[in-house]
Each structure stands twice: as structure tokens, then as C-alpha cells.
Amino acid sequence: MALLVAACRPVASTERAAIVVDDAGDTVRVTAPARRVVSLIPATTELLFAIGAGPLLVGRTAWCDYPPAAAAVPNLGDGIAPNAEAVLASRPDLVILYNSAQNAAIAARLRGLGIAALRLNTDTLGDVGRVARLLGRLTGHAAGADSVAAVFDTALAHATAHALASRPKVLLLVWEQPPMTIGRGSFLNELVERAGGTNLFADVASSAGTVSIEAVAARDPDLILTTTAGPATFARRPEWQAVRAVRERRFLPVVGSEFDRPSPRAPEAIRELARRLQETR
């Protein structure tokens, strides 16, 4: 009888249930700390390593290229509408997905199988500390997450340019056909503004949108920022010659994943942009 009573007692455990409302508005029960994490957003993969939770990763996307240690994590392919079988084969207890309608089905399927799946926004610099702290809480790395967030906020403040006499107008061109620019809803807009430039289409509320060449010419940018290496092929097109910055070859190419996602490396990206904007004046 004593043995039976002992067997019925609750077993002590460090695990506990956390109830999280993700950025899609779904309420998710997560057994924390998570032990096997699939991160299908490059920004969250980078943050997990930054807070000390990198060893928990059992899956990532093909675009998770930082830090270099991420290359040792199994590559599960795309992060938008990912391969569900590949994710399940990783035996995760927590899956991080980008907050896209295309990821709703797999999130629901995973939850139906008892696997916590969160859809998160990683679009602005404000998401860095917020998401870091959430991941820290769910993986048992809260102290590391708090440290990363605090250091990031301080570095961001120090890297931001203030009280500049003049700010060059910058077209953030991220796609050529049709021309697509970045609006104020994107972290890339924040990088340029904090570096001392002015986004030519900051009045576009969304993170990105298509624009006409006529609208670009009318606003007359001082510089054209591109996110691809090598020569700008659009600049050879006759219709683009209506833009003064194209005729004068005033291009600002930026390469590196620090310009592709909001991450702890954003202050470094801001300093580089600020230096290059100064060189063009």
C-alpha cells in the first residue's frame, strides 16, 4: 500500500505550462522549457543563438545563415508553407513560424498533434527585444534574453544619428520588375532613418509596396539603395533614365543578412549605413 501511495504522488518536474498568445492571435500552450526547437524564421534562429538556446535547435530554414553555427542545424527548407513531414521528423516540442496566412495550416496541424507552434512577427527593430524575451521564457534562457535585449537597446541608441542638418532622400528598391520599395512598416526603413537618411516612400504605411518609375522621378531621390550585389540591371533600362539618381549612378548597394532581418546586428548595420551616407555627401 505504501508503494502504491508513493507511485500516485506527483513527480517533481522543472517543466511547466506556459500559455502564450502569438502574433496571429492564437492561444498556444507551451511546455516550458522547450527542449527541441524548430525555428523557421531567420531572425528567431539568430536570436535563439544569441540568448544561448542554440543547442536546442533541431531544425531551421535554408535562409538561416547567421551565426555560422546555424549551418550545423538540419536544414528543413522554406519557412513559408514549410514541409510538414520534415518538421515532424525533427520531433520538436516547439516550432516557430513567421506570422503569415500561408503558415496557418501547418500551425493548426502541429497543434492538433500536440506540438506547440507559434506564429511571430519579426518585421521591426521593436520586435528584437520582445521576441528575444519570449523565446527566453519558453526555452529557459530568460536571463540571456534579458541581457541581449538590454544590450541591443543601448547599442541602438548609440548608433542612431541625431540632429543632422540635411538628410539624403533614399529610394529603398528591393525588387526591379515591377519596382517595389520599402515603406515605413519595415525595419529597413528604420535602419535608413536611424543612419541619417530619409526613406523616399516613408508615407507608404505597409512594409513594402509597388511604385511607378514616374513617382520615383517626381520625388527625385538622392540615392538608390539596393539589396543585391553586383551591377543594378534596372539602371540600363531606358525608362529608368528619367530618374536623376540613375543617370548619375548614385547607387548604395548593401549586402549581408544584417540588412535582411531585424536582429542584434542592427546597430552595426546602422553604423555602416551612416558611414556610407556620409561618404556620399
| Helix and strand sequence | HEEEHEHEHEHHEEHEEHEHEH
Largest sheet: 6 strands, mixed
- Count of distinct strands: 12
CA-CA gap between termini: 85 Å
- What level of helicity do the residues show? 25-40%
Write the topology of this structure:
Elements: H1 2-8, E1 16-21, E2 27-32, E3 37-39, H2 42-50, E4 57-59, H3 84-89, E5 94-98, H4 104-112, E6 116-120, H5 126-139, H6 142-159, E7 169-175, E8 180-182, H7 187-195, E9 198-199, E10 208-210, H8 213-219, E11 223-226, H9 244-247, E12 251-253, H10 266-280
Parallel strand pairs: 3-4, 3-5, 5-6, 7-9, 7-11, 11-12
Antiparallel strand pairs: 1-2, 7-8, 8-10
Explain how this protein is built.
The protein has helices spanning 2-8, 42-50, 84-89, 104-112, 126-139, 142-159, 187-195, 213-219, 244-247, 266-280, and strands at 16-21, 27-32, 37-39, 57-59, 94-98, 116-120, 169-175, 180-182, 198-199, 208-210, 223-226, 251-253. The protein starts with a helix and ends with a helix. The strands form 3 sheets. Strands 7, 8, 9, 10, 11 and 12 form a 6-stranded mixed sheet that branches. The chain has a 4-stranded parallel sheet with strand order 4-3-5-6, with helices on both faces. Helices cover 35% and strands 18% of the residues. A hairpin with a 4-residue loop joins strand 7 and strand 8. The model is unreliable at 1-13 (pLDDT under 50). It is of the alpha/beta class.
Task: Offer a quick outline of the entry.
With 281 residues, the chain is of the alpha/beta class.
